Structure formats: C-alpha cells, structure tokens
Amino acid sequence: MKFSELGLSDSILSAISKSGFEEATPIQAETIPMVLDGKDVIGQAQTGTGKTAAFGLPILQKVDLQGKDIQALVISPTRELAIQTQEELYRLGKDEGAKVQAVYGGADIRRQINNLKNHPQIVVGTPGRILDHINRRTLKLENLKYLVLDEADEMLNMGFLEDIESIIKKTPEERQTLLFSATMPPEIKRVGVQFMKDPHHVKIKAKELTTDLIDQYYVRVKEYEKFDTMTRFFDVQAPEVTIVFGRTKRRVDEVSKGLEARGYKAAGLHGDLTQSRRTQIMNEFKQGKIDILVATDVAARGIDISGVTHVYNYDIPSDPDSYVHRVGRTGRAGQHGVSITFATPNEMDYLREIEKLTKVRMLPLKPPTEEEAFAGQLNAAESQVGELINKTNTDKYADMANKLIEEYEATDLVAALLNEVTRDDVKVKITPERPLSRGGRSRRNGGGRSRNRNDSRGGHRGNGGGGRGGNRGGGSRGGYNRSSDRDRNKKSSGGRRDGGKREGGHSSDRKKNFTIKNG
Fold first, then answer.
1. Is 518 within a domain?
2. Count of domains in the chain?
3. In the β-sheet with 363-364, what is the strand arrangement from edge to edge?
4. How high does pLDDT run on average in the chain?
5. 3-class SS letters over 51-82
6. Residue 371 has what DSSP assignment?
7. 344-370 residue pLDDT tens
8. Do 167 and 303 belong to one domain?
9. 244 and 138 in one domain?
10. How confident is the model at residue 211 (pLDDT cuts 50, 70, 90)?
C-alpha cells in the first residue's frame, strides 16, 4: 500500500518521499490510519519492520508545531534505539520545524536539561533517564497527548516495568497510547489492559517475519569448537558486513577480543560500555572500519545498519523469538543474506523450536576444514596483493626490488608477502557457557538481555568509564594484558581483515597462545 492512501498530509508525504520510502510496510499500513483516527494501538512486529515510522508519521502530523509543551513521549529500552528513533523523527519532521529531543543515560544530563528548555514537541528516551528528568521537574508531561512504548518486551526483560508504570502514572489520562512489542507476554498485556483504552491489536504474522532472501543454516558443533569453526566460515565465505550474536556480555567481550587477536576487524557491543565507546563502535561499523560486530540481543535492538550480509548466532538465542530479530538484520531491502546458527548437541531440541516458530527448516552445514579456510585466506590475499601493486609507485622501489630478486628466489619473496597478509595461527580459548536446557527456555536474565539498568540509563556504573570495561575499548575481561595488546598493535600482528582481505601482518611463524579467562 502506498503512503498516499493512508490519510497523511502533503507535507508528511513530501518528507517520506525525500527519505526514499515508497510503499508502507504491513505494520505501517495497518497502524497509521488508526493512530490518525485517535485510537490506542498495540502493534506486534519484529525489529526492522518500520515501527518508528508507523507511530512517528501520524504523531508528526498531529502535534502542534507552534506549541511549547511536550506533546509526545517515546520510551525506548536502549540508548541506541532512543538515538535512532530521535534521528528518524527529526529527519521526517525537520521541514515542518518539528523539535525532537533524546534523553538517555551515559550522556551529560545538564546538556539535556538545556535542550529541553528549547521546548521540543517530541521527547524520546530511556526509562531511567526519563524518570530522572521527571523527578527534577525538567520534563513536564502535564499536557502530553501521545505516549509510545517501543520494544515493550525488551523493557520488561531488562527490568523496567516498574519504571514504565511510574512514568505512565505521571501522564494525563486523556492521552493516546501506542504500544509496540515483538512478543506479548502476560505482563505486557496487563499494561495494555490497565493503561490503554480499548486498544486495537495489529499483529504481523510469524510467517511474514522471515524471508526467502535469507539462507538459514545451522552447524552442529561442540562448545569448544565454536570459535575456530566460525572463523573458518569467515575465511571461506568472506562476509562483507557481519553481526555475531552472543548470549552474554562476557561472551561478547571474549569473542570480539579473540577475533581481534586473529586479525579480524571486530568489536563488541553491549550495555556495560560507555555511551562514547558505543557511539564510536557504531560509527566505525557504519564506515566499514569494523567488519564484524559482536553484540548481545539487547544492544543490537537499537542497531539499524544497511547492507548486513551475514548473521552468525555464536550462541543460540535464549528466547526463540529473538532468533527472528537476529536474522532480520540481514536480507533487507531486497538484498540476499545468510544466517548461520551454531548449536551444541544438547541444544538441537531448542533449535527445532526455533524452526517451528519461524516455519523455516534450517539446512545443516558442514564446517570448513583447516585446508579450506587457508585456501580462503590465500584467495583474499591474492586480491589484496593485486590491489597493493595497483596503488604502489613501483618505480620508487625498483632498485631495491631487483636487488632482492638477485639475493632471494622470487617464490620465497612472494611467499613472505603472502605470510604478511594472512593471519597468524593464534590460539583462542573462550570460556564455556552452559547450554540451554533441553526442550525449555533458559533463565531470562541468563542471556544477553541484561537486567542491569545501566544498559539503558548508563548514568551509574557505566558513566564516564566507571563500569566494567568502560574505558577498555570493548570492556573485555580477557586474560591478556595491555602491554601485550600494545605490542601486538605495534607489530601489526595477525593483520587486519577487510572484506575478506588483510591489512598488515606478522611474519613470525611461531604459534601464539591467546587465552581469555573468565575474570
């Protein structure tokens, strides 16, 4: 359905056109007319289906742009999602002069207070920081008209339900309430019954949550084999833009640091990082300076990256619905994507549950051998050497090159170059995680969904680098020291991987041991 058929104004349609949108997604097509009609709506759909525009477009059309009161409040579970939502609403409303402000932990609250004095019509924020502003009387909701609860199930899993209810009680009863959630647990249904007026339920069916554009595989593997198996897939498949999902923050730290040790351009993202570090990682990922992003489910909820080619589930998700969210990061905008899930023998029953939910049968995939992985490295190195020759002023080095050819065999010289641009055989040990229980769900707080409120507020342990890993560039609890890390960087040991290609390298033939321990 086209946006022009949904009752939106010409100015909003113009903003939609400038943003490059053409047709409304199912959640947008069903939700927008209801919101314009003043109805409370419960929307059930996965991340990446266009929920922000589903509530943002009608709210932008209905707010009084000349008014000085806060008219719409959007509550998001994470800083990343709050920032992303604020940016999208600003982009859609800037031509009309809409003011949209984001408030979240891990950032200077004084600056936010000053920005709130500019009288935004719409505020987007995380529960903890919103409550902080309400208690400080810097966020006044007496004249609020529209309340949006985005990713409500994630806020529940992170322990924010009481905060949400406290916020709702500070808003006028005569308001329009919109609730969006991927799943609908009883606690979220209770919020709908208690705080919404005759809400209309919009649900995108499970069969629409996966796409034929995504090839979905699983690899049956023992826990201690996961890391080596995954890196072999990297070498063979040469993924361009990759997200690896881990179930816990420790897992994310260890896997990302292990990948760095092996020469991949990787970084970890989870709730214990400072906001500045999270922003830096996301910017580098978007710019292509990082090829592999390792993340927890919670941290990834706020990510909107185009062009993700591969998703690797290092850990099978603790909630089968989360699989849909993970896989939905690839195969977007008509592009082909690949998803690979690593499952231990004890987790095979759980994998079948995921297949039932998604109505897709994952295909078994045989892990590449060491020889196949090395061949993949050499193919990437061949391309890299060719590019290096094309961009090098060879005349400048001709005399020394001829001298080296006289002194050494040409084959030996090329072999040494290939050794430089392929990775060292660095051994990495990842702390084992307990597999999910057979046929049942693991504990809610045992996964990447942390109940640590700093995931959203960030104003306590994680503020200013005070949290675990706050200033450690990824928060690793790994067992190698800083000096060895600095030495490794100085020597460019292991090289860097760039879209299947390497930058730099280390000529040592010695095997290195890189053991990450549970701190």
1. no
2. 3
3. 266-269, 292-295, 242-245, 310-313, 337-343, 214-220, 363-364
4. 79
5. HHHHHHHHHHHHCCCCCCCCCEEEECCCHHHH
6. H
7. 998 898 898 888 877 788 999 998 888
8. no
9. no
10. low
Helix (H, G, I), strand (E, B) or coil at 244: strand
Last residue in a domain, options 164, 187, 203: 203
What's the mean pLDDT in 208-215? Answer: 67
Q: Which amino acid is at 245?
A: F
Q: DSSP assignment of 185-216, as one string?
A: -HHHHHHHHHH-SSPEEEE--GGGSS-TTEEE
pLDDT digits (tens, 9 = 90+) for 92-138: 998 889 999 999 998 899 999 999 999 999 999 999 999 999 999 99
Whether 102 is in a domain gets the answer yes
Same domain, 340 and 382: no
Cα gap 263→419, rounded to integer Å = 13
For residues 301, 304, 308, 312, the Cα torsion angle rounded to the nearest 10 degrees is -10
Count CA within 13 A, CB hemisphere, residue 65. Answer: 12
- How confident is the model at residue 439, as a pLDDT? 42
The domain boundary, picked from 203, 236, 270, lies at: 203
Domain that holds residue 396: 371-421
Map tokens 């790994």 to a residue: 478
Of the listed ranges 48-57, 84-93, 163-172, 313-322, the least confidently predicted one is 313-322
Q: Are residues 120 and 216 in the same domain?
A: no
Give the domain CATH number at 303.
3.40.50.300
Is-contact 206 176, C-beta < 8 A? Answer: no
Answer yes or no: are the C-beta atoms of 431 and 518 closer than 8 Å: yes
Asked if residue 276 and residue 164 are part of one domain, the reply reads no
One domain, residues 188 and 333: no
Cα separation, 95 vs 345, whole angstroms: 55
Asked if 166 and 131 count as a contact pair (C-beta separation under 8 A), the reply is: yes
| 494, part of any domain | no
CA Rg value for the chain: 25
pTM of the complete model: 0.55
Give me the count of residues in the chain.
Answer: 519
Amino acid identity at 286: K
Assign 511 to helix, strand or coil: coil
